Amino acid sequence: MSNKSRTALAVAGLSLGTALNPLNSSMIAVALVVLRGDFGLDVAAVTWVVTAFYLASAAGQPVMGRLADRFGPRRMFMLGMALVAVTCALAPLAPNFTLLCVARAVMALGTATAYPSAVVMVGAIAHQANVEPARPLGILQMSNTSAAAVGPVVGGLLVSFVGWEALFLINIPLALAALLVVRQAAPADQARERGSVAELLRDSDIPGILGFVSALLLVMMAALNVAPGFRWWMLAAGTVLAALFVLRELRFARPFLDLRLLGRNRPLMLVYLAFAVFSSVYYFVFFGLPQLLQEAGGYDPGVVGLLMLPLAGMSVLATPWAVKAMGKFGVRRVLIVGVGLLTVAAALMWLLTGTLVIPLVVVLTALMGVPYGTVGIATNQGMFVSIRPQERGVAAGIYQTCRYVGAITATVMIGVFASGGVDQGSWARMVLAMLALCVVTLAVSLVWKAPARH
User: Fold this and answer.
1) What's the Cα-to-Cα distance from 158 to each of 151, 161, 162, 303, 372, rounded to whole Å?
2) Which residue from 86, 64, 59, 85 is spatially nearest to 75, judged by alpha carbons?
3) Alpha carbon 161 to chain centroid distance?
4) Are 422 and 295 contacting, i.e. CB atoms less than 8 angstroms apart?
5) Contact yes or no for 78/143 (Cβ under 8 A)
6) What is the dihedral of CA 267, 271, 273, 278, to 10 degrees?
7) What's the rounded Cα separation, in Å, for the pair 156 and 302?
8) Coil, strand or helix: which one is 41?
9) What is the per-residue burial (b if ≥16 Cβ within 10 Å, else e) of 109-136?
């Protein structure tokens, strides 16, 4: 095999592996109503299948990145793909919803190994092929965006013709293909300093990770009123754990989330805040609208998947336009325009409280896709211009965590606003919440300015 062919094959395998996380996060959107029916759940309960995936992803990405540095990215990538294949083979056999959520969390950990491992391997691949790393990194990014775009369509068809079990089964051949291709074409791991298990555990900030996940879980359980008699106790415990987590991260040498970076960099903190709140608006639509269309509109999951495609598809088309606009007008102006479009699109979602006819749904989902692509790339670029080059790896990890926190926030709020089911009445409450979040995002965007040094 020629060097060029080997490089192309390696990038293809890495792209396939990294696409599994966004694919599985978007496919599930059209299966929530079916899962509720099969397991006898309400809206609040079914959100755990989403939040379990995002919690595991948020905690897993930074940890898997450190493990890739310690044990080798190729080895960790293949281990992650093997974990995905085994988990997805067993998940359809889950006898109850709790074990299904556990399977989603384990699958998320497996997919979480792919992106950080791929980013580490890209350097070696680019050097081997004598090309700029930006080229393979761009391919990875496009594969992730495309996977998120086609996820609702693929998920809708699988659920319609096979059932929710197919959402797991489809990952088996994909994960195995990525594993075999990377094993065949990617460069071998270099010798690395492994150290002792005790050192590995110490450097991974396990207490910080546990504090982060536990605080989020307790606050979520309180918001969803999982245990009515202990609601305020759980909220208090979650708040205390969050405070202890902050103290831990500020004092630890290699924290799970580098809060000191935020403390000394106001522009970066504002970008993270804007992106987290913006993500909440987006996932309100991404997870709430499919349930509305299935429950109140009576549409088949396959049809709902097709109706959601314009949202993701337009976000892909809007991204290159936003890149050109930033070059001409600057990041801040594009960010503000994008958030303005987001507010308009969210306000127009109110029309769905009156009718759910297909032409209107298609127009509205397409409109929502434009600000998603615009704000997404603008906040990403805002992050990079707000930090020093040597801090970009850490900053990118926190940026992804902000996305997951926004998604978790949206799913919890959907459970709160639509505890009795997603109908046009509960959708009206969701639209009001989205508009409030849009106002916060706009305010933060207006305050943000790129540091003068850049």
Assistant:
1) 10, 5, 5, 11, 26
2) 64
3) 27
4) yes
5) no
6) 160
7) 4
8) coil
9) bbbbbbbbbbbbbbebbbeebeeeeeeb
Between CA 81 and CA 112 the distance in angstroms is: 10
DSSP type of residue 353: G
Rounded Cα–Cα distance for residues 213 and 302 (Å) = 34
Name the one residue in this structure whose structure tokens are 């704000």.
Answer: 375
Q: Which helix (H) or strand (E) holds 119?
A: helix 114-129
pTM: 0.78
- Token representation of residue 369: 């896709």
CA dist 261 and 356 (Å) reads 46
At 452, give phi and psi (nearest 5°): -65, -30
Please name which of 284, 254, 258 lies closest in space to residue 272, comparing C-alpha atoms. 258
Residue 320, Cβ neighbours under 10 Å: how many?
11
Q: Is the dihedral of CA 60, 66, 69, 75 positive or negative?
A: negative
Positive or negative: CA dihedral 155, 156, 158, 159 = positive
DSSP string, 237-299: HHHHHHHHHHHHHHH-SS-SS-HHHHHT-HHHHHHHHHHHHHHHHHHHHHHHHHHHHHHTS--
Of the candidates 302, 353, 369, which has an alpha carbon nearest to the alpha carbon of residue 166? 302
CA distances 129 to 8, 74, 136, 199, Å, are 9, 17, 11, 35
Euclidean distance between CA atoms 398 and 136, whole angstroms: 22
Using alpha carbons, list the distances in angstroms from residue 235 to 214, 230, 414: 11, 9, 18
pLDDT one digit per residue (tens) for the chain, 454 residues: 556 777 888 888 999 998 998 899 888 888 888 898 889 888 878 888 888 898 888 877 777 777 777 778 888 899 999 999 999 999 999 989 999 999 999 999 999 888 878 877 877 777 676 666 656 766 776 777 778 778 888 888 898 889 999 999 999 999 999 999 999 888 887 765 556 656 666 666 778 888 887 887 788 777 767 677 787 888 899 899 989 988 888 888 777 677 777 777 888 889 999 999 999 998 899 889 999 999 999 998 888 888 988 887 888 788 788 888 888 898 899 999 999 999 999 999 999 999 999 999 999 999 998 998 888 888 878 887 887 765 655 676 677 778 888 888 888 888 888 877 889 999 999 999 999 999 999 999 999 987 765 4
Say if residue 187 is exposed, middle or buried (CB neighbours under 10 Å; 0-12, 13-18, 19+).
Answer: middle
Q: Write out the two tokens for 270.
A: 């504002």
Question: In the Cβ-directed half-sphere of 311, how many Cα atoms lie within 13 Å?
Answer: 28
Q: What is the dihedral of CA 220, 272, 145, 63, to 10 degrees?
A: -70
